[in-house]
Amino acid sequence: MRNPAVLVVGGGPAGSVTAGLLSRRGHDVLLVDRSTFPRPKPCGECLNPGAVQLLRELGLLDAVEALSPARLEGWWIRTGPEVEAGGGFGDGSRYGLALRRSDLDATLLQWARVGGTQVIEDFQVTRVDTEGEENRPRVSFRDAEGRKGDCRPAYVIGADGLRSVVARSSGLVRRRPGTRKLSLTCHVIGEGPDPSRGHLYLTPRGVLGMAPLSSDGGCWNLSVVVDARKEGRRIAANPAAFHREFGGSVGVPWVSPPKTVAGPWASGPFDWPVRQANRGRIVLVGDAAGYYDPLTGQGIYRALRSAVMAEEAVDRALRSEFDWERHLERYGRAWARETTPSRRVQHGIEYIVRRQRLLRPLLKRAGRSEGSLTGLLRVTGDLARPRTLLRPAAWMPLVRGGTTRG
Ligand SMILES: Cc1cc2nc3c(=O)[nH]c(=O)nc-3n(C[C@H](O)[C@H](O)[C@H](O)COP(=O)(O)OP(=O)(O)OC[C@H]3O[C@@H](n4cnc5c(N)ncnc54)[C@H](O)[C@@H]3O)c2cc1C
């Protein structure tokens, strides 16, 4: 095992885009992933409009659009069959996309490879020690044949998702998860509701998210998120049966009964805050840099955004060795500044969603007009900053029962 200038741990969107950008600048980048691609990833599989915009800026949107994703104009939100509200992302020029993560992630990884990143699959990092020889982190690993070893890259990018080994072993995780949510994701085929939007069912028992996975609307992602303390045993007994039963209980208006074709894939808990997104020569990106909850579907946007920010910092660090610490510290601070407000919005939404007495009247009111939810959907769609929610224009339609169209 050689000692690369940059070792990227994890080939999800955060890792592939960081690696692809750094290798395009001429740096020596090695990316390792414990899986072999294409691999499924438990996810609602929606790219919000902010993520679509970032892909466009990176020159990656054409490659993603070539995978025939479904186009999402907004969301329908329901507490059950009788209470529903819908909203778009604004003037209609912005849209989200939905597609299989196995396709998306393999495409982004291939983009990194083409840019010059060396990729090793089926390769698991087991530990990262911050104090290595010559000030380089020491990375321990197990390869596809089960052989153990270690290497000393100049910089390590921790892009290894939830429960990041890089974040945990370098002492960057702030605390263990406070909320114990668990998700189950399946792909189903069937003629479902409006395929031009995503669908969220917010019930007292948990959440069901639905999104069409291709432009023909024939295949859907169905992701269930519940409290592990209440439902954990039933899920462990038979995850597929639990997913079917929960999906059937919320009243999705299927035209024909849906058939599960892949999954279930489980994930959780989600709440993994970090102290900061850098330590020494280690930089965290994507979920590894702190995650809270999948409800607002912002994880891929954050993976891409952190990749862009981290790449700039690591590129500068590689070019000015005497000053590397300052560039990485700056990334850590900028990442915290950027994510703190939107995490507060997520906490606020989560608070309301847990209280049906608050949620149902709010949704009923929002349901009187499309425009009522647009301000919020633009923030969770990463098109507008969270502080725009403080403007009266963002919530007046909700107070009035709505007058504008979204
Ligand atoms: C139920 C659910 C629904 C979601 N819905 C949405 C949604 O609709 N929209 C959205 O934007 N986000 C959604 N998210 C969040 C989204 O999935 C993540 O935020 C996103 O995948 C983060 O990308 P990443 O590159 O940081 O990590 P990941 O995509 O998790 O990639 C991490 C990679 O690291 C590899 N890895 C892990 N450990 C090691 C190791 N020790 N050694 C080597 N490799 C390792 C893994 O194999 C994996 O390939 C959802 C999440 C869940 C759980």
Describe the protein.
This protein is an alpha/beta fold and 406 residues long. The protein folds into two domains: 6-70 and 94-176 and 271-345, FAD/NAD(P)-binding domain, CATH 3.50.50; 181-267, D-Amino Acid Oxidase, Chain A, domain 2, CATH 3.30.9. The chain contains twelve helices and 19 strands. The strands form four sheets. It has a seven-stranded mixed sheet, with helices on both faces. Strands 8-2-1-12-19-18 form a six-stranded mixed sheet. α8 (299-319) packs antiparallel against α9 (324-353). It is globular and about 65 Å long. It starts with 5 loop residues before the first strand and ends in a 6-residue tail after the last helix. It binds flavin-adenine dinucleotide.
